Amino acid sequence: MPEPVPMPVNRLVDVAIVGAGLCGLALARLLMARGQTVQVIEARDRLGGRVLTQQCATTGQALDLGASWFWPETEPRITALLSELGLASHAQHDPGDALWLTDPNREPTRRTEPNGVHVGARRITGGATQLTHALAQSLPPGCVRTNLAVQVLRDRGAFIELQPDTGHPIRARQVVLALPPRLVHEHIQFEPPLPAAVWQALAATPTWMADQAKSVTTFAQPFWRAAGQSGNAFVRHAQAVLGEVFDASAEGTDAGALGGFVALDAAQRQHFRRGLPLLINSQLTQLFGAAAQNGEAFLQDWADEPWTCSLSDRKHPSEPPLNEPLLRQPLWSGRLFLGGSETAAHGVGHMEGALESADRLHHALCRPHASARSAVALPVATVAGGACDTRSAAIALFASSVQALRDMAAHRYRLHLTRLLSSQQVELLTQRALLAAADQVYSESLARLDRLLPALDAADSQIVNGRHALTAALLAPFEGWNKGLLEAALQHNAASCALSNFPTEHQPDAETLRAITLDLAAAWREFALELNSRLLVAAGDETLVS
Ligand SMILES: Cc1cc2nc3c(=O)[nH]c(=O)nc-3n(C[C@H](O)[C@H](O)[C@H](O)COP(=O)(O)OP(=O)(O)OC[C@H]3O[C@@H](n4cnc5c(N)ncnc54)[C@H](O)[C@@H]3O)c2cc1C
Asked: Is residue 7 very low, low, confident or very high in pLDDT (cuts 50, 70, 90)?
């Protein structure tokens, strides 16, 4: 990355990004590297949004009170970004027995979870804010303005005017709203209004984890490990205070920590506010014994955070995130875009989704500059030869990478399924795991396409009725893959003991199969359109894209 240059104040910028969470920061870094002027506007006095790490002064541990885990096998973007930024990660501690408490008047029982509980999850060493800090450090001084909440967006034709709660309007050629859709719906006014369908989709998209409270309690040692316990616990009775507990100890210290998600809803937490640390302490003591009595408790209630939790999220219990294509459409003739994890096609709701969204927007916002093209050129040896040979080699490379992704898809389906099961999510298992596996293939295929664009020389091809001439050749390796994936999934389900308790998943009926097929077809259509759009943008035909 080149040395960042300070931002001049109050001038028309290429792109204004509202929200300095993971998506906003990652996008700003990508755009700045392409030589664009960027202004990030953040309502809070800190960066990172739902990524928040607090330091425990007593034990010296970094504690994640927001996002914490990522899964390298299914989340390639965050894995690659951490390695690019030189940030370390470590495995979530899972070995040992989990505890289950189903009756408040009984002792917990110990259970061995054959697949573990967190299925390959890792944590960023030093806390998840290592990632957002590293991204922020790559931006020039003045690029991010904090304590400024955007309230109104006005389309002025050649630019968009953003009116914050204080101070002068900010002007930008293009704007990205990198924040939860429901906050856009509740806090931002649009002149002219957004299309009704998009407006409804914004209101209907839940903010992942926004209504949750997370606690981390620190100890001098992770004493449960010596007792053969993993630190994982599930409390499943009506008086549960923490529903789910896990080992949150920092890497490289002798100290220990137990994290947990509070089982009380936002209104109950409000009611028990002052007594909550004591209730958490007593729940941990009931689970792990007297050694858990003297912990130091840290608590973050996200429902109290107006820049994360919308009024609507507060009212309704947490729902799994949706994959909503409407939120990925360009608005105001390609000058306005929605972003953030909830708008992602893959990894929606997760940090991976925030990065996927940043990546998509980076391509949607404008055409790659010549310098960026040469920076991602293919190794010469791979594509040596004339323009035609180079292109054929690039198409062949794309086809072989699609084949490799196809080969992995069934395995990834099983991974998504196991993860859903181990996080106690039991609704629409097959459908969700299949879509996650398919979206992952599409998302990674688009990332591979981006790397091959220079060699594909998209500008030197015909465009007929908005369809780029290379689109068909690049989509060909996907032939029959949706059907194959569905068949592999059904075969796995029929043989799976874990699914035998879920008849609709074990042997899905015709209606369920129809719904799954329609969903897979919709995901495919969106991918095919996006692939075509990227070729059109690379060909310089932006008018056909927005
Ligand atoms: C308790 C908890 C646990 C989680 N655990 C995990 C996990 O283990 N793994 C995982 O992958 N993900 C996890 N997540 C989800 C993860 O944190 C998010 O997916 C990710 O951080 C979202 O990033 P984002 O940039 O899309 O949005 P956000 O982080 O929400 O950022 C949006 C930003 O916009 C700002 N903003 C809002 N309104 C305005 C406005 N009007 N003007 C200006 N700025 C505004 C906000 O202040 C915020 O900084 C967890 C989340 C929570 C709350």
From this structure: low
Do 275 and 416 lie in one domain? The reply is no
Q: Is the CB–ligand 1 distance for residue 302 below 6 Å?
A: yes
Q: Looking at the predicted structure, is the pLDDT value of residue 545 above 90?
A: no
Q: What are phi and psi of 426, to 5 degrees?
A: -120, 0
In a domain, 87, yes or no: no
- Residue 466's nearest CA partner among 394, 533, 520, 398 is 533
Q: Is 500 left (phi over 0), alpha (psi -120 to 50) or beta?
A: alpha
Q: Is 340 in the pocket of ligand 1 (CB under 6 A)?
A: yes
Question: Total structural domains in the chain?
Answer: 3
Beta-carbon contacts of residue 144 (< 8 Å; ≥ 6 apart): 20, 25, 28, 40, 41, 42, 47, 136
Q: Is 275 helix (H, G, I), strand (E, B) or coil?
A: helix
Residue 284 Cα distances to 117, 237, 324, angstroms: 18, 15, 39
Ligand 1 neighbour 212 (Cβ under 6 A): yes
Same domain, 427 and 507: yes
Q: Pick the closest to residue 134 from 213, 48, 204, 60 (CA basis).
A: 48
pTM: 0.83
pLDDT digits (tens, 9 = 90+) for 364-417: 886 443 333 333 333 333 433 456 688 999 999 999 999 999 999 999 899 888
The pairing of strands 170-178 and 13-18 is: parallel
- Nearest CA to 446 out of 508, 387, 501, 523 is that of 523
Note whether 290 and 421 are same-domain residues. no
Distance 61 CA to ligand 1 centre (A): 22
Tens of pLDDT, residues 311-335: 999 988 777 777 888 999 999 999 9
CA 460-462-465 angle, 5° bins: 145
